[in-house]
Design brief:
The structure is a single chain. The chain is of the alpha+beta class. The protein has one domain. The protein is built from 3 helices and 5 strands, in the order αβαββαββ. The chain is rod-shaped, with a radius of gyration of 25 Å. The chain starts with 6 loop residues before the first helix and ends in a 14-residue tail after the last strand.
C-alpha cells in the first residue's frame, strides 16, 4: 500500500494518525454496584444464610471464625489510559519493542455481611468509600 503525502499538512496528519494508533483507554467493571438498600428485609437473628444468598447472591469470599461467618461482596471499577510509543516504530521495523507509559485508577467497594454461629444474619458493613477517582489526561 503506497500513501502519497503532499505538503506539511499531510505530513502532520500522518504523524498524528500514527501517534494516536498507540493509545488506548479502558474501563473495567467487576460485579454489580453495591447498594445498602439490597439488605432491606434482613432481620438480625431471624434471617437465614439462604435469605442472605437470595438477596445478594453468592459471595466473592467467605471467611469463618469463632464468632460465625463473614460473606464479602466486591464491586470494582477501574479506568486506565496507556500510550505505547513502540507502536509508531512498527511501520518502519518488523519487530518493535513495546514502550508503554500509563496511568490508572481502581476503586473497589467491599460489603461485609456477618453471620452468627447458628448461620443467621447478624449485621453488615460497607467499607468506607475511597476518594472519588479523577481523570488526568497526562499519563504520568
Amino acid at each position: 500500500m503506497m500513501v502519497e503525502v503532499r505538503g506539511k499538512a499531510g505530513v502532520l496528519c500522518l504523524l498524528l494518525l500514527l501517534s494516536l494508533s498507540g493509545c488506548d483507554f479502558r474501563r473495567v467493571v467487576v460485579n454489580d454496584p453495591l447498594v445498602i438498600d439490597s439488605l432491606d428485609g434482613l432481620v438480625p437473628g431471624k434471617s437465614t444464610i439462604q435469605d442472605v444468598a437470595k438477596k445478594l447472591g453468592a459471595p466473592d469470599e467467605i471467611e469463618e471464625g469463632a464468632g460465625g461467618m463473614v460473606f464479602r461482596y466486591r464491586f470494582g471499577d477501574s479506568k486506565t489510559m496507556r500510550v505505547n510509543f513502540g507502536w509508531i516504530f512498527r511501520v518502519f521495523f518488523p519487530i518493535a519493542s513495546s514502550m508503554n507509559l500509563g496511568r490508572g485508577e481502581g476503586v473497589t467497594y467491599v460489603l461485609h455481611v456477618a453471620l452468627r454461629p447458628d448461620l443467621t444474619f447478624d449485621h453488615s458493613v460497607i467499607q468506607p468509600q475511597p476518594d472519588i477517582p479523577h481523570f488526568g489526561f497526562w499519563p504520568f
